Amino acid sequence: MITFSHRQLKTPRLLRPVYLVTAGLSKCDRAMPDKRTEELCIEALAMAAKLIDRTPAELKKYIHTAYYGHFADHFGDQLLGEAVIHDRLGLDPLGNVGIKTGGATGGSTLWEAVKAVASGYSDCVLAMGWERMDEVPTDEGNHLIACAADKDWETPLGHIYTGYYAVMAQKYWQVFGREEDSFRRTLAEISVKHHGYARFNPFAHGGMKITAEDVINSPVVAYPLRALDCCLMSVGAACAIICDEDTATELTKNTRNKPLRIWVAAGSHTLRPACRRNMEIPLLPNESPDQYKDLAERFPGSERYPGFTGFLAARISALYAYNMCGITDPSEDLDLVELHDAFTISDIQTYEDLGIRPYGYGRDYVESGDCYHTNPRTGQPGKLPSNISGGLIGCMHAVGATGIMQVFEVATHLWNRWAEIHGDKALWEKFGRQKPDDWQDLQVAGARRGMAVSHAGVGSHVTCTVLMDPDSLIKENA
Amino acid sequence: MSKFAQVTVKNNRYIFSGDFHHICPNQPIRDLDNNGRLTGITNPRDMTYVHSYGGEAVFFENLSRGKIHGSRCDNPECEFTGTVYLPFRIHCPDCLAKNTVIDLTDICKTSARIHTFMVCERSGAFNTLAKPMKFINIEFDGVATILMSYLSVGEPRIGMRVKPIFKTTDPTYTILDLSWVPEDTQKNQLPPGFSFG
Ligand SMILES: [Zn+2]
């Protein structure tokens, strides 16, 4: 049994308000033989500058420190690639540091950037993340990712990280999904949704018009997961500019970007998934102490928490984040979310870890239609739309950039600029992509608050980033 | 003629012999859609690393002898004294005292059951397991944690009773020397080099 002290569970506090001022994203693709990584980073930074009507040179004059998210040195055979990018961005002699927490690298980079501003060390910080997963063949890529597991106890087992995830999927599939065809179909609907939304996103490289049958008939990767249940492997870069209030006000004056309050909290549950000790379920503000008492009766096999069915790191980061900014119920308090849909089933597991639904009932978030931009059951706006970008399944998963891409996407809704950016025909053309004739405006109308969840494999690291319009805060002095 | 990298320890220092890397020429990468113009370069890398098992060495050594060792916190001051770990933990994760190495072979033989599993057709580079691979996560009576390993005979199922087998002939001295089979498996069904210990 693991227990936590009240000191360990202290609600994190920022010493002053911190703002997301602007953000940018490069084109994302499976491979980019024609581009060095710095070209992608410059593309992302130039977009961030453009959104606040500045030149990159003007924006750079505000930057005081830089945080770089880049997961796998192995992939590029370049140790300390952060230093190379920093130099190419022309930001020497500013202090900079590299961040790596697997799939959560983007979120962790924002975590560090926000703390640098909150502490007063910097008034304006660059958070930039990237990855390129196209410079080794896929099987070697799988080996390199598997090197992030425990090299004595796990990596030799197949050298495939997906396998370490899939044992969790299998447990959830049997215990909470009860191996039902209806549950399998719900998983497929997530893939349909994310590939579908990605069609309207010029940055995305996984847009597809598919049906649940297409997903259910796609090749098995690790039963019950099939090829279309899995995220993309991508090349791309994303960045965000994080500031204190005065700098945020100055940088956004007379622009369409309103500074957004930002909070980031992190949790962990380190690798060796097999080595998890059990514990009591930490409760979120919208859960009651007795609601899980009979969980094992309702779902035999769910006796161990977090066992193999939940991501403790996601739950803990949500607990910190919600308490930090006053969220008492994510479905009520948030207008949209971007979740780390590495696999359709881990997406469902995460709904429960975040308290969007109680443990055991994640599927209802999809089946109710709440997770859609427009609820297919009612034709009305979804209660809490998720992954309108297309997520990792439809948009991209360029590991170090992913968590920042998600925040960029959420912010475009809060700025009410989603359609302007994603519908821009010139951008589609620049990326060599065809804007679909049936392109839809997926702006979440009136969005004021959103959250992005960045997650590393098997839940080793998870961050929750919350963005709010400063005129729609939940808690004073948050 | 190249020779596999070999390492021994003498006076607490590594002594290296053989080849730890191989030099292959870089090759240009050309874009066939653009008159074969240069876009990049290959960078061959073939290296052998040296790695210490440290306090876990006893576990890997004993697999080749048909034994599974775990560890237990015996620190009377520890809030969780008596907790048993497999995978092996050198130190207690709570009090950080050095754990006692204990023989769990009998517990593994009598109480192992599958907590969850997965069957995988794909592997990463450097994999040596036969495909499809059947990963299993195993729970044991009186052990706080669950062990990740693989099933060598039959099809896995949650709750299934399994027993350990060991690569006692030509061991690899890695976690792959330990595998599992359904409890009614006979000796003649085991993969080459494996025995019940
Ligand atoms: Zn102890």
Features:
heterodimer; A: 478 residues; alpha/beta; Peroxisomal Thiolase, Chain A, domain 1; 9-stranded mixed beta sheet; two-stranded antiparallel ribbon; 19 helices; 14% strand; globular; B: 197 residues; mainly beta; OB fold (Dihydrolipoamide Acetyltransferase, E2P); 2 domains; 3-stranded antiparallel beta sheet; 7% helix; binds zinc ion
Describe the structure.
The complex is a heterodimer of chains A (478) and B (197). With 478 residues, chain A is α/β, with parallel strands linked by helices. Chain A has a domain at 157-229 and 264-410 and 449-468: Thiolase/Chalcone synthase (Peroxisomal Thiolase, Chain A, domain 1, 3-Layer(aba) Sandwich), CATH 3.40.47. Chain A has 19 helices and eleven strands. Chain A has helices at residues 37-51, 56-60, 73-76, 81-88, 105-118, 138-146, 161-175, 181-198, 212-216, 245-252, 295-298, 312-325, 330-333, 344-353, 363-367, 391-394, 399-414, 418-422, 425-430, and strands at 19-25, 65-69, 95-99, 124-132, 220-222, 225-226, 235-243, 260-268, 336-338, 449-455, 461-468. In chain A, the strands form two sheets. A nine-stranded mixed beta sheet of chain A has the order 3-2-4-7-1-8-11-10-9, with helices on both faces. In chain A, strand 5 (220-222) and strand 6 form a beta hairpin. The longest helix of chain A is centred in the middle third of the chain and has 18 residues, at 181-198. Chain A starts with 18 loop residues before the first strand and ends in a 10-residue tail after the last strand. Chain B is mostly beta strands and 197 residues long. Chain B is globular and about 70 Å long. The longest helix of chain B has 7 residues, at 57-63. In chain B, the strands form five sheets. Chain B has a three-stranded antiparallel beta sheet with strand order 6-5-7. Chain B has a three-stranded antiparallel beta sheet with strand order 8-9-10, with no helix packed on it. In chain B, strands 12-11-13 form a three-stranded antiparallel beta sheet, with helices on one face. Chain B has two domains: 6-47, no CATH class; 54-195, OB fold (Dihydrolipoamide Acetyltransferase, E2P) (Beta Barrel), CATH 2.40.50.140. The chains are: A alpha/beta (478), B mainly beta (197). At the A-B interface, helix 6, helix 7 and strand 5 of A face strand 8, strand 9 and strand 10 of B. Zinc ion binds next to loops of chain B. The site of zinc ion has 9 residues of chain B, from loops.
